[in-house]
Sequence to fold (383 residues):
Amino acid sequence: MIKIVTVVGARPQFIKAAAISRAIRQKFQGRINEVILHTGQHYDAAMSQVFFEELELPKEHYNLKAGSGSHAVQTASMLVGIEEILLQEQPDCLLLYGDTNSTLAGAVAAAKLHIPVVHVEGGVRSYNKKFPEEVNRLICDHLSTLIFVPTLSGLEGLWKEGFQRDNQPPYNADNPKVYHCGDIMYDNSLLFASVAEKKSTIIQQLGLTNTAFALVTMHRPNNVDDERILTNLLLTFDRLSREEKLTLVIPVHPRTLKIMERINPQVGQALRENAFLKIIPALSFIDMTALEMKAEIVFTDSGGVQKEAYYFKKPCVILMDETAWVELAKSGSAILTGADDARIRDAYHTLMNKRPSLQFPAIFGDGKAAEFICEKLVEHFGR
Ligand code: UD1
Fold:
């Protein structure tokens, strides 16, 4: 039996970790013992608890309650807490997901204790180190022993960074093994699409049963931390919805909500009076899935939501200047616009016109990434 410690902390990690925990429960009982460590990076119930419940992620064994703070403060407090738990648990490896500050803290803590790091969603790059996520991914990949890469572009990126294709065991942080395995988030979306159809009532709650609508999410610091940029984005959506008579559902991340409270009261009033705008609190995974499946088009700066739009064959306006998911833009089903009013509106019209002919080839694997990862963990650490 191998013992793994899994670090989760932010919303997208609860979703990714749920796929592995489910695979362990269903196929690797008695072979993998998983200890879940929640850093507490996301702490609001709507950002954390609800994901554990809906996705049946086992309750965490540890919670560091790291909470918010500057990057250094947040990461440092996690680093201290993770080190202590790793010393106590002495796992065979530390399992990390994606690119958040929780991922970074886990990678550094484990590497210094010579505990092998396993990075799920490795190789992903936006090639812009101004994004904290890019820094986190780079460091985590370069400290890992096993790297599981969701896409071919991620694989190519790692070869360029000097990772070896045909290296032989024993694998370790100086001789890491890279696997191409498909996207673990796709596993969840496939499974939860039917759950959302049966259980979610969000469409009825929002009165959208017979109404076409678009879905909008924004939480990246470069889009929401400056209230002028956020205000302009909201005004773009205000205008677009009125001109097109298109309902926009906008679930709001707590980060965005805090800044929205500071925007000009007149703008706030105008937004509230626009019946086409449905600005609502952050949603659970099942409700988000239900909206993604039924939306005409998605506008987002979230990496996860971009991909989910693609899984459900929806056009997507990416509110960023670059994406780590380059395949999406290449497929023609997604267009990068940054926070620019004209580019957002152009992209909307282009995508809606092309909608019937958009192609969504299978670039995220077969929905069995979690099982593949578990097999490799047992193969590698079970020796
Ligand atoms: C983090 C990740 C990002 C991921 C996102 C998903 C980093 C650097 N970024 O961004 O990659 O896409 O999660 O949601 O790790 N807040 C609350 N309640 C919460 C959580 C956060 O109010 O439950 C507030 C915090 O006070 C803070 C802001 O939201 O002001 C940002 O939280 P933080 O964890 O730093 O990063 P995210 O923007 O959520």
